Amino acid sequence: MLKTKKKRKTYLFQVYLWTLSFLKPFKLQLCLLVFCALVITGSQLAIPKLIQYFIDDILNDSYSNTFVLLLSFVVILVIFNIVFSAINNIVKRSLQEKASRDMQFSIYSHLRKLGFAYFERHPIGQSLALMNTEVSALQNLYRQLLPWTINNAFFSIISLILMTMISWQLSLIIIPSLLLYYIFGPYLEKKASKYAKLTADQRVSYNQKIYESIASLNDIRANASESWDIANINNKHRQLNQNMVKTVWYAYLRGTNRRLSYYIGGIVIVIWGSHLTITGQISTGAFVAFLLYYFQAMHILTSVVTSITEQRVLMDQAEKLYLFMNIQPEVEEQVEASLPEPVKGQIIFKDVSFHYPNGARLLEGINLSVFSGQKVAIVGESGNGKSTIIKLIGRFYDPVKGQILLDNQPIHQLSFKDLRENLGFVFQETYLFGKSVRENILFGKPEAAEEEVIQAAKAAFAHNFILQLPQGYDTLLGERGLKLSGGQKQRISIARMFIKNPPVILLDEATAALDTVSEKEVQNALERLTQGRTTITVAHRLSTIKNYDHIIFIDNGKVQESGSYNELMEKKGAFYHLSLGQKLEGDILHEA
């Protein structure tokens, strides 16, 4: 048990060092912060000593020059305090913003490196909560806790030294005062920390639920599930609120215990200090100075303990970011080879096998050669790995065995940029940004001229419907392109591919979710897009691939049949029976 706790503390210390590592580029600013803390501490601690001098030496002095000199010195100290406090706040704010910025960029960069595999297993709401809630919590470390701890650590050490110099007997009273604080202090600190962590976790869960609720608003309305959704939100909010109340309650008890401990010590100091003053063992001014140092030092010492505890709780939240940053990408980018110019678009699979982590084998021993300009379709029942082949070509995942080559270059040796600039993806679901039609098309080639945009739209049979929109190419599409139909969205995505002009086109059931009219329009655009390009299509409807050069039938992760459409129909094998099933389904629908 003790070893486990020790390991946990060591681990959290590593997390703490990781959070502080974002301050490394700003060492000069950190040194300036420490210097400001020393100056502020020195100016604050000088005041009680000046009060001691005033009471003991100046109060009975008939000369006013010394008093004026002392007053001038106090004014200078106050000015010093104001100036360096301002500098301290500016530097502190700058450090907070820069360190938080670097942390966010680091997390976002790592999120990009993790790629598609990570996002397919983790909801977007979870990633957003990680970026917002956890990073925001750590900002408190840079903004308040760390600078505050540095400043008050100096203050506590120097004030204890000065108190001992005034009276070592009175200084001993600090020990039972601190012991009195530690009777209930650690218990209350742990309780406050526990509920603070629970509150942080509940806030993440609540924010994730809010995101999901907004993202699914259309489905919720369509199913008249507003009451169900609001009930779920209220439940999450109630849990968050309960933990917040408990956190505040224990924080209040913690503060009360802290103040009670040093007030009791203060009463003892007043009684004992009065005796020492009456007996002449210390002067009145020294006693007053000691009292001032005591209340300041005890308040800060106990607050430092609270600050350390809060940082300990913060490390529980930072741990999530630390663990996230230590996730290794499943697909590592390497830049060992470059593609020839221009890319021809030949793709070869050599004995490729694949399975998802901790999953059953999805593809096994796939050998496939797609020549430049050839159109190849991949068909089969759902769940047999058809779309996975497309993902492997784009290096969304890497095969567990075998190799994939583009123009005789292994794709794992290419940079993502070199590889994906030569691939054009059209998925079943098209993501459109909440910007104008023009900007969505330019996503395929940001530097393209206006004429290229229009030509790409015409090639995708999108130009006419775009002109009918309220502002034409300047029409804002709304989030995810909600103002367009499914067919219109697909034609915008095809226009992107025309303007990108890649040598290889990868279609993943691009027309599966469309109605008959929209499918025909999109199919016309796809036929124009694929002319003269290497094309690999995951086909849902077999009628769309009759004119393809080669068809591959995948079953249980293996190539069961391959050949042209007519060849496979003549074999009357698996492909033939699949096509019969689709015809039968179509007939039933027609009769209905």
From TrEMBL:
Subcellular compartments: Cell membrane
Xref: PANTHER family: ATP-BINDING CASSETTE SUB-FAMILY B MEMBER 10, MITOCHONDRIAL, ATP-DEPENDENT PERMEASE MDL1, MITOCHONDRIAL
GO molecular function, one term: ATP binding
Transmembrane segments: 69-91, 145-162, 168-188, 260-278, 284-305
Membrane topology of this protein: Multi-pass membrane protein
Name of the molecule in the record: ABC transporter ATP-binding protein/permease
Key words, A-Z: ATP-binding, Membrane, Nucleotide-binding, Transmembrane, Transmembrane helix
Signal peptide: none
Domain ABC transporter: 347-581
Pfam families according to UniProt: ABC_membrane, ABC_tran
Chain ranges of the ABC transmembrane type-1 domain: 32-310
Gene3D superfamilies hit by this protein: ABC transporter type 1, transmembrane domain, P-loop containing nucleotide triphosphate hydrolases
